[in-house]
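Why do we care about 3D structure at all? Because function follows from shape, and shape follows, mostly, from sequence. That is the central idea of this module. The next example makes it concrete: a single protein chain, its amino acid sequence, and then its structure expressed as tokens.
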Amino acid sequence: MTTIQEVKARHWTHVAADALREALIYPLKAYRHRYLVANAFRRELFGRFKGSILGVGWVLIHPVFLFVTYYLVFGLLFNMRGKPNAPVSWYSFYLFSGILIWMLFSETTLRSCTIVVDNGNLIQKVAFPSELLSLPLVLVNMVVLGVGLLVVYAGSAVWALIEPSTLAITWPGPEFILIFPLALEVALFALGIGLFLAAAHVFLRDTLQIYTVLLLFWFFVSPIFWYPDFVARGGGADFLSRMEEFIKANPFYSYTLGMRGAIGITDHPWKDALAGVAGGLLPALAAFFLGCFFFNLLKRRFADEV
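And the structure:
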């Protein structure tokens, strides 16, 4: 190895070590800049509805109408697609719970993809930790998730007054406590993927279009609309058996399973909630650290590229 090659090797080793260190101290950095994060969070939350009549009230209204739509279309019109012997409202709750956890991920990653380019002027003029730009997006979407859960239980309460014998879920049981580590795992997973996409988009402006296509595919191979019994009843049992390992390797297999267990719409709520949290931990940590590492590896070149 020549002297120049040795210098380059030491340089990239040093850069990689710095990127890894930055990933490890991300929580500390977020705490040190908590006021910056809090201001960005408020701006993101209220900025979404700037100029609208109802303002931040849309955070509640949107999931309410989404749930009502799912109930009317899938809970009533297409109830034959529910599990055998399932309550009338089962599929609408099943579908809506999957959508909620998916929205936390998809909204965060899609907005994160262009976050560095969109803040190019800020990055060029101000010295600040740009890896924190995606954090307010995650926090806002966690608020939306919380509101969505309130809608789920409000819908359950209303249906209990109408026809309690056909209720899909009841009030939260002890398994509901697992919704908090589960939401944190999905947030970490989304943050890691978002950081990776944000860094990639700086150098490859097709990243958003590519990811949008991949995200659509990811949505349909995740158990959000479908479930194993439904696929088997529809004649897809052979396909499902061949794809079983691939399906279970998808992190959203664990996240949706845990979500539905935590709110009590599976046959074994506590077991499924625990399985979801346990199965989703490694993907969340891996995505977070790899995303942070990749972002910090490239961020020194952002000011020149944006």
